[in-house]
Fold this protein.
Amino acid sequence: MRRELPAVLRVLGLALGWRLFSAALALLANIVFPMGQPEQFRVLPRTHLFWDAFARYDAGWYAGLARSGYTYEPGRPNDFAFFPVYPKLTGYLGTLMGGGIANYFFAGIIVSWVAFLGAMVVLYLLARLDLTEEEATRAVLYSAVFPFAFFFGVIYAESVFLLFTLWAFYGFRTRGWLIGGLAGGVATATRPNGIYALPAVAWIAFTHARNDRRQAIKAAVAVALFTSGIVLYSLFVYIKTGSPLEWVYSIQRWNYHPGGIPGVQLVNLIVALGTRPFDYLTTGKTAPYDTLNGLAAIVLVLSIPGIWWRFGAGYGLFVAANLWVPLSSGWYEGLGRYCSVLFPFFMLLAAWSSRLPPAFHSAVLVTFATLYAICLALFTKVHPLF
């Protein structure tokens, strides 16, 4: 670990520098471009071109949860769709900062940024189990500049979720069963898609402990701990509402219904872009945003065989499961955000980059950074990209 310290410090510098650059870029977008629709939330009593860029869409729900906790209105979309770890961390910090809605927004930014820095360090350490130092650093770079990675710097739960998911995988990969299980428990209490990693960590636990009875027992306990977050949250929801699955029903009341044939929307997108691209992109109200989300998902789906072959079934299962459920909903909304936390994809790109001509690395960075700037600007100006 000590040998990795210089590289870890470089990763921290890169991550912090990118967050600062992104904040400046969002401010520039707020100054230059018109709003896509009226802003839903303000950090301060009056519009602020810098701070309000962090507070779009779900940010208002998270800040409200941090300040007031969960409320239940039967039969209506409610805040039980938002899992508790991120708003709780934000709430504790916001209270320490003096309370008031502005401080809860500020606390959300701090939590997201600190978690992002931690996530990039853990991603580097996890990648080093399979990659060279240069490749692991590139994995961090690709993850940071992925088109939808701007969510890691705003008031959303993605950075906290990524941190604990990576920590869980690192624990399972290194037989740090207790750390892996506890981190996984936090991840499953941070985002609903945390539980989709269960098949992956169970497979990793099996392959790392099957020939050692003591290790197998520890691994089984770690897998059980991995589910503890979502189990405890469901128990909390039951106490509050009378139904342990009210968080599921709340998600469904937002018109999100997984369970259909996965990938139909991606096939429709490919057909539309292949047969009438100009007409599709210029006449459909949400077509540009659906295209950005859909293309991200298509690229990740195509990467699954490479991830499975290069890093094993555990990582392949993780990516496949995390894509299967949202793709079965029929919606494009959120696909890019869900893809942003699928770290094996960035490790695969990094592994390829050292074996392909340097132009590949440059092309990935230029493409990602360009689309990152576009997606960040659209989100900042309250276009439907969330």
Remarks:
- The CA atoms of residues 262 and 327 lie 5 Å apart.
